[in-house]
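U., I forgot to send this yesterday:
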Amino acid sequence: MAVSLKYSLHGKSSYVLGKPILIAFDLENSSSTDLWILKWYTPLEGIKGKIFEVTCDGEAIPYEGRLVKRGNPAEDDYVLVHPGSSAHAEFDLSEAYSLRECKECRLKFKGRIHDVVVDGQHIPHAADQHVSVEVPGEPLLFRIEKVPTK
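Result:
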């Protein structure tokens, strides 16, 4: 069975330096079957690792958030996404990255889902049974200003 997923990021066109940078993440199931998605290392669990590529005016911004060491997942570490539906999460990018004033900030999810399961009776998978999937999507572009634009 072919797994078809894609992600999208949504946010404002500009943010104010020092204020929250709220971003929405959607993971869409374009497959014809239910998929159980491991939330680890995706925005569906928040930002708990180096899951994004962030650049401001072409300069890479390093991740400064927490890193989480993992064992084996539990059933509640998976989210069910029905065909034609999406899993949704919102997060504050400024909690994990020190962003500066810039004309163009580029945010891209690295696009890797660490485990996708077609048969929900077989979750959770042990780490050595994970089936990872690369997920395409477009980067989000925005600017960061010292004061809000009127």
